[in-house]
Amino acid sequence: MDFVQSTAAECERLKTPSYLELIVSIFILIGLLISYLPQHYRIISRGTSEGISPYFVLLGTTSATAGFANILTVPPSRAAISCCKELETFECAAGLLGVAQLGMQWLCFALILVLFLIFFRYREANVPQEELGGESPKWQTAVAVGLLCVVHGLIVIIVTGVFAIALPNHLTVWANTLGVMAAGLAAVQYVPQIWMTYHLKHVGSLSIPMMCIQTPGGFLFAASLYARLGPEGWSTWAIYLLTAVMQGTVLVLGVYYEIAARRYDGHSAEHSVNGPHPSADGTAAAPRRPSANRTYSEGWERGLPGPFTGHPERYAETEEDLDHIQEREERAIARENQPLLRPGGIGNPRRNYNSTRN
């Protein structure tokens, strides 16, 4: 009886939609689609999902599935769906924009899952191998992620159908269960991604523009759902509030490592003749010095060049190395008596260089 009364009240409310709320909802719906496009494009353009944790994809997809099922089964959404029988098309569409938003998010994240499964091997990437960090996931891991997402989706559909048909009075309990499930998965969704980004010290195929759009959008989305569903819909909007906080953490890490990498590249280009430069994580990194193909000489085992090397400062990592190179050169000069380093060569002090010949 309570559901019937709430449905009637919801129908009356939907007959006079708030145009401000409608504009904001449409803006969020379009923004959700636009925010995911950079991520889809980055994976496809790089030809690899390197940098994206498979467990982040698994948890994100299952969380999106549970969240979408949650908003379909909470009382306000069910009332709005029931009202469409007596509402105009525009009024019905305006009332279901909240459902459409979560449906769009589920669809976009499901596409990330598909792209992850297609491009999970690093050796087929369109970027140089030296830009790839770590090892690509095993095919067993990729298959397990895909199967678990499909099985989870099927279980949610079947159980939701059972409650909707056979146990409609308990459907709200199931909706709250789905909300708690989605919130729990969202709470740990970004943990493996935060760890992977921290471990790799770069974002890889994870899109920073996507996170720049979604992090503030997540807070706006949660506020929109709160305005639509109220405190009773906590199991829906709390998911996206928590997700926005976690995603903001990944964004801060990604921006930090990208800025550090750009500074390091610029510092290397401008000061390639100086000492060691800081790496992306702030620790000292060995400078890139040119390879020196040569026969054995003093200091060879340390990677230092042979004597009489032009621009020895390019090979020195520290001032001590540069002094050592110069000292070796002085010792080599003191020992040298054949400039061409072969018996009978020019400069042999034991050879007569009298130009008068018989």
Automatic annotation (TrEMBL):
Main subcellular location of this protein, as a coarse class: membrane
Membrane topology term: Multi-pass membrane protein
Nuclease keyword on record: no
A Gene Ontology term for the protein's cellular component: membrane
Ranges of compositional bias, category Basic and acidic residues: 311-334
Transmembrane annotation, as ranges: 22-39, 51-72, 104-122, 143-167, 173-191, 203-225, 237-257
Highest taxon in the source lineage: Eukaryota
Protein localization: Membrane
This protein's UniProt keywords: Membrane, Transmembrane, Transmembrane helix
Gene3D superfamilies: 1.20.1280.290
SMART domains in alphabetical order: CTNS
Residue segments, region Disordered: 268-358
Pfam family, one: PQ-loop
Keyword DNA-binding: no
Protein name per UniProt: PQ loop repeat protein
Organism from which the protein derives: Purpureocillium takamizusanense
